[in-house]
């Protein structure tokens, strides 16, 4: 299911935490012909990656339909190397090198050379100005991007559809109030497994519902008079599909 969905999009987006923890390949392992035969939806083919002939092997198969990896890495925490899985796949002609969204205006020369040599690039985006202090980040804090700025930067590269895969912080941010209108569809795979404490948690902020006429007033969360917490997100036009032991839920964001 994951690789079929990847074949239907121009890009796959993950956060820096996922890139560091999982060393993902972020490619599609389904042949373009098989993916096209599985759906009647039109797909805009991706152009082949620009592979440096001095560092890369001849592409092993048709690159049409390979999504472009997008990694959101504001402070360039991801210490990728030539042995990172996504780079190995790019050299083998089995995937594309990533575009890295960052707030660092002048990335390290060696990282830029490695990335561009595999057909990827850094894309500098201005942060929103919000900073969240976290113990593991020290005094440097963490910079945040506005999703509209990210999507505009990706759109400027000719990429028109993005599959946002994770991790939890990225999905929570996208499902937050003010961003849900940017989402076309949500797909959730439910497996019969509890990940346990420390697993990926998707729990976006709750909405604040203003009182209807006739309701009593009071001080709600966030300092808005009379506001009360409501569900963060609800799906509509839902469809449930059994897939082995898993169940896949598809739907659109309810207004």
Automatic annotation (TrEMBL):
Residue ranges of every copy of the Bacterial bifunctional deaminase-reductase C-terminal domain listed in the record: 2-204
Region span, Disordered: 209-231
Catalytic activity: 2,5-diamino-6-(1-D-ribitylamino)pyrimidin-4(3H)-one 5'-phosphate + NADP(+) = 2,5-diamino-6-(1-D-ribosylamino)pyrimidin-4(3H)-one 5'-phosphate + NADPH + H(+); 2,5-diamino-6-(1-D-ribitylamino)pyrimidin-4(3H)-one 5'-phosphate + NAD(+) = 2,5-diamino-6-(1-D-ribosylamino)pyrimidin-4(3H)-one 5'-phosphate + NADH + H(+)
Pathway: Cofactor biosynthesis; riboflavin biosynthesis
Pfam families, A to Z: RibD_C (PF01872)
Enzyme class: oxidoreductase
BP GO terms, sorted: riboflavin biosynthetic process
EC number annotated for this UniProt entry: 1.1.1.302
Alphabetic keyword roster: NADP, Oxidoreductase, Riboflavin biosynthesis
GO molecular function, one term: 5-amino-6-(5-phosphoribosylamino)uracil reductase activity
Function: Catalyzes an early step in riboflavin biosynthesis, the NADPH-dependent reduction of the ribose side chain of 2,5-diamino-6-ribosylamino-4(3H)-pyrimidinone 5'-phosphate, yielding 2,5-diamino-6-ribitylamino-4(3H)-pyrimidinone 5'-phosphate.
PANTHER family: 2,5-DIAMINO-6-RIBOSYLAMINO-4(3H)-PYRIMIDINONE 5'-PHOSPHATE REDUCTASE, DIHYDROFOLATE REDUCTASE FAMILY PROTEIN (AFU_ORTHOLOGUE AFUA_8G06820)
UniProt similarity note: Belongs to the HTP reductase family.
Protein name per the record: 2,5-diamino-6-ribosylamino-4(3H)-pyrimidinone 5'-phosphate reductase
Organism: Eutypa lata (strain UCR-EL1) (Grapevine dieback disease fungus)
